[in-house]
Amino acid sequence: MAKVEFRRVRKDFDGQVVIPALDLRVQDGEFMVLLGPSGCGKSTLLRLLAGLESVSAGEIVIDGRVVNDLSPQARNVAMVFQNYALYPHMRVRDNLAFPLRMRGMKRAEIERRVREAAGVLGLEALLDRRPGELSGGQRQRVAMGRAIVREPAVFLMDEPLSNLDARLRVQIRTEIAALQKRLGTTTLYVTHDQVEAMTLGQRVAVMEAGRVQQVDDPLTLYREPANRFVAGFLGNPPMNIFPVRARTRDGRHQLQLAGQWLDLGEAPPGKACFAGIRPEDFGLPAKADDVTLTVQVEALESLGHETLVYFRDAEVPSPALCAGRVTGDPAGRPGDALCLAVDLSGVHWFDAAGDALRAGRSD
């Protein structure tokens, strides 16, 4: 196990800055997920740590040692790729043993490690098969086994589940979490899938354009996003963002949504320019004192136990599509007017730059 640090790490490709100056610390034994959209630099960061790319500036530190000038083999890390990278002509046993043979390890030690990795991953019955004879999930386990046998200080996983179907992703995701907990190896896991990030990561680093926007445990990221990007990236559907139009009437603080004034519990922060409301804060009216909003339905998506209601805020130029998540099946169809209850107690406020604010504060 080892602690990993990125100290002001920058990466340029052909004069274009991909990662400007990144700082990040991963604790010894921690499962850290790098989450963000395609092209945000998360896979590049993993390749820099593995030594497959060189840094343009800054330092990468593993277990207290700067590794910028070390070869990939000398960094004591093991990487699991999206495409498995197995040798098709080799049996599973030989695929697992290959990196150890390249190190010149003794046969008895190789056999011990292969046997232990196969036991951990349930591969004992598959050791004499070739990759072409395996399912996608089995090939992924072999790829993970080839990393495990090396007994590295750090595991690096670059979107390892993206080639699997939905049901198998859930299964392998559960196995990865249990495996990391059992081995206790420091792990960096790259994904653009927020479900993987929320279920796997002890902490998640949300990235955009080569910068870390927020690092926190999954629930804190969801409940207390640091800015509009994090708020909009986590959640499916994402948080609804409205420009703030507020007033005080008869001692009541009000917020305008879709052309209607709704009562707030307290005044927005003085610098609030945007209000964020999660889809689950909408619902069907159940009490006489519910704060309600009447919307024109754009689309309905029934998921059985709940329905996603899509509507627009007509007061906003080029209005974005908004979403509400309601229990059950609301009567109606696209084009109909629908009354939704709105829980405004959990509104997220953001300033003009997109940074999060708290209600009742002006600074």
Side by side, the strands of the main sheet go 6-7-8-3-9-10
Query: What is the radius of gyration?
Result: 25 Å
What is the fold-level CATH name, i.e. the topology of the largest domain? Rossmann fold
CATH class of the largest domain: Alpha Beta
Count all strands and give the number: 23
Please give the CATH architecture of the largest domain.
3-Layer(aba) Sandwich
C-alpha geometry: elongated
Number of domains: 2
Q: What is the averaged pLDDT score?
A: 91
Uncertain ranges: none
CATH superfamily of the largest domain: P-loop containing nucleotide triphosphate hydrolases
* Beginning-to-end CA distance, first to last residue: 42 Å
Provide a count of the helices.
8
**Helix-strand makeup class:** alpha+beta
Percent of residues in helices = 10-25%
β content, as a range?
A: 25-35%
* Biggest pleated-sheet summary: 6 strands, mixed
